[in-house]
Structure formats: structure tokens, C-alpha cells
What we know:
Elements: H1 2-9, E1 24-26, H2 31-41, E2 45-49, E3 56-61, H3 62-71, E4 85-86, H4 103-111, E5 121-125, E6 132-137, H5 138-147
Amino acid sequence: xxxxxxxxxxxxxxxxxxxxxxxxxxxTNPISNALMNAYERDYTHLTVVSADTRGLLGYLNIxxxxxxxxxxxxxxxxxxxxxxxxxRRRGKIYRIITMDTPLEDLxxxxxxxxxxEPQDFAVVTDGNRRFVLGVVTKGDLEExxxxxxx
Length: 150
């Protein structure tokens, strides 16, 4: 399967997807603020960081957030913490996705290759996982394939 992916991407990396800069929100920010920021930039995911350490804690899935608001599970005045999805770190192997990650590895990450669960998006960090550089989605990868000549 690696050979098929390698031929499809021809050496391209996450950097070739040209991911937009990450947009993070804090646990204590109101949901309305996070939603407005996501709409302004047409983002489907926002990372959630600690106000003190700027450490990555989880994310907001904007389509899921809209459902929670519609169902009345959260209000737009509630803090982001009530609607965010936390990263589960215990017992999980953390796959580092950087700008240099080959796209075939990213596709494998999205597909759940290597025993992990399938993912809809990836947080792109520096190699030391100190800085969030961007977020890429399965849709970004699909668009790249469509745009790239065969």
C-alpha cells in the first residue's frame, strides 16, 4: 500500500498542503467568541490551549459545536471548556505531524494505519511539539489530490 500512496503524492509533505496558521482559543473563552473566530476564517477545528502554559489541551470541532448549541447542550455564553474535546494521552501513541511529514504518512494517520483510530484532522507542530503551526484535515488532503496533475 505504501507504493500506491508514494506514487500518488510523489514526495509531497504536509508543507505542500499550505496549511493555514493554527487558531487557538483558551478554555475560559466564551463559545461565541471561538465560533466567531472559526467563521471568520472558515475553520472547522480550533485548538484549545491552556491560558497559563499555552499547552495544547484539546480541540473544538465546529460542526459538532453547532449540534451541541442546537440541542441546547451548551450555550454560546458557556466557556469553551464545556464543549471541547480533550486529547487522550494515556495509553496512546502520539504521532507527531510536522511540516516535513510525508503525505502518505498523513493519509495513513487519517486512515488509522498502525493500530491507531482513524482521524479527521491533524495538529501540525514543530518536531519538539512545542508550537502548534497549523491544522490539516482529510478534506485538505483530498483537495490537494484533486488539484495535483496525475
